[in-house]
């Protein structure tokens, strides 16, 4: 082979070898990139699992604290019945005042106990009381009266609309509602949102002040929330202030009606209590348990649950 052709052949082999090495280098770089991507994805997955595990731990602690808060409240209620004034501890308030059950290590429950005798019963309250509560929550007086009539039409058994804006099947059909009034008692305050014209927003605002478990036409002023007392038609501000002061002086165990008089006052049977317990974990996770419990006194079992619901669960987002 002549010298020029020998040089060309050697150069061709060298170029081919360089190309192979270049391709191999590119493949190695791609492999390294893929390995880095896999490692990053694995790291992100592991970190997400760690955060999710911590959140689940916090949620479990919060749920346990919320449930523990309910049973702590029941124990304090039973103490009112069986021990009364002989207890070393003051009687637990039953008018929705905030209480704290501390379980240690940063786990606690914020608890409120409300005697349902202080709430407006959706199945028994007369129209003026329902209208007064709705008006106190920011609805114009005329509109509040209409909605109160519709609550009564929702719960009563007949098909005759209440005067001044009541609503039976025909009104619901005109409003293109897929259902009519229940024509039966409310089973839960949540059903308020089904009443024509009330909707979810007003129903949510009414819910803390209403019940379906007292059976009373009126409210017990010794345990009623202040807003319910403010809503009572005909009760002056001076009488309300006097009533709250008298209630404060009387102590949590007083069961005699106060000196202030009103047609809507009715003593509670002190049997059914709404308990709202917010469990809080050390990481800030929260869990809300809401129940209604009946305290049975000397009967066995001494208490039983009439309702047991999870009102809201708030997860803790992972730290960025």
CATH fold-level label of the domain at 58-118 and 269-314 = Pantoate--beta-alanine Ligase, Chain: A,domain 2
> Are there runs of 5+ residues with pLDDT below 50, and where?
316-320
CATH architecture of the domain at 58-118 and 269-314: 2-Layer Sandwich
Gyration radius over CA: 33 Å
Provide a brief overview of the structure.
This protein is of the alpha+beta class and 320 residues long.
Describe it.
A five-stranded antiparallel β-sheet has the order 1-2-5-6-7. Strands 3-4 form a two-stranded parallel ribbon. Strand 6 (286-295) and strand 7 (303-314) form a beta hairpin. The longest helix is centred in the first third of the chain and has 80 residues, at 3-82. The protein is extended, with a radius of gyration of 33 Å. With 320 residues, it is an alpha+beta fold. The protein has helices at 3-82, 127-136, 141-155, 169-174, 199-206, 226-231, 237-250, and strands at 95-102, 108-115, 120-121, 210-211, 272-280, 286-295, 303-314. It starts with a helix and ends in a 6-residue tail after the last strand. Among the domains are: 58-118 and 269-314, Pantoate--beta-alanine Ligase, Chain: A,domain 2 (2-Layer Sandwich); 122-207, EpsJ-like (Ribonucleotide Reductase Protein R1, domain 1, Orthogonal Bundle), CATH 1.10.40.
């Amino acid at each position: 082979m002549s010298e020029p052709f020998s040089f060309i052949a050697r150069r061709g082999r060298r170029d081919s070898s360089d190309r192979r090495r270049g391709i191999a280098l590119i493949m190695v770089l791609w492999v390294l990139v893929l390995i880095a991507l896999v490692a990053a994805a694995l790291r992100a997955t592991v970190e997400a699992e760690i955060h999710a595990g911590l959140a689940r731990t916090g949620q479990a602690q919060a749920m346990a604290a919320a449930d523990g808060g309910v049973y702590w409240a029941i124990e304090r209620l039973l103490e009112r019945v069986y021990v009364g004034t002989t207890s070393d501890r003051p009687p637990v308030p039953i008018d929705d005042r905030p209480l704290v059950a501390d379980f240690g290590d940063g786990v606690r429950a914020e608890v409120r106990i409300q005697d349902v005798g202080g709430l407006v019963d959706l199945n028994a309250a007369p129209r003026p009381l329902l209208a007064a509560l709705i008006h106190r929550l920011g609805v114009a007086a005329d509109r509040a009266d209409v909605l109160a009539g519709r609550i009564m039409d929702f719960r009563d058994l007949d098909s005759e609309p209440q005067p001044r804006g009541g609503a039976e099947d025909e009104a619901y059909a005109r409003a293109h509602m897929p259902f009519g009034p229940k024509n039966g008692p409310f089973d839960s305050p949540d059903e308020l949102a089904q009443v024509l014209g009330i909707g979810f927003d007003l129903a949510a605002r009414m819910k803390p002040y209403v019940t379906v478990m007292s059976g009373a036409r009126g409210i017990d002023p010794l345990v009623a929330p202040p807003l319910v007392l403010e809503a009572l038609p005909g009760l002056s501000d001076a009488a309300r202030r006097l009533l709250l002061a008298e209630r404060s002086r009387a102590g949590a165990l007083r069961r005699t009606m106060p000196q202030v008089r009103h047609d809507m006052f009715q003593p509670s049977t002190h049997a059914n209590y709404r308990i709202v317990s917010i469990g809080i974990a050390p990481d800030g996770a929260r869990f809300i348990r809401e129940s209604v419990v009946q305290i049975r006194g000397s009967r066995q079992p001494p208490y039983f649950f009439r309702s047991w619901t999870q009102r809201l669960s708030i997860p803790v987002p992972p730290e960025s």
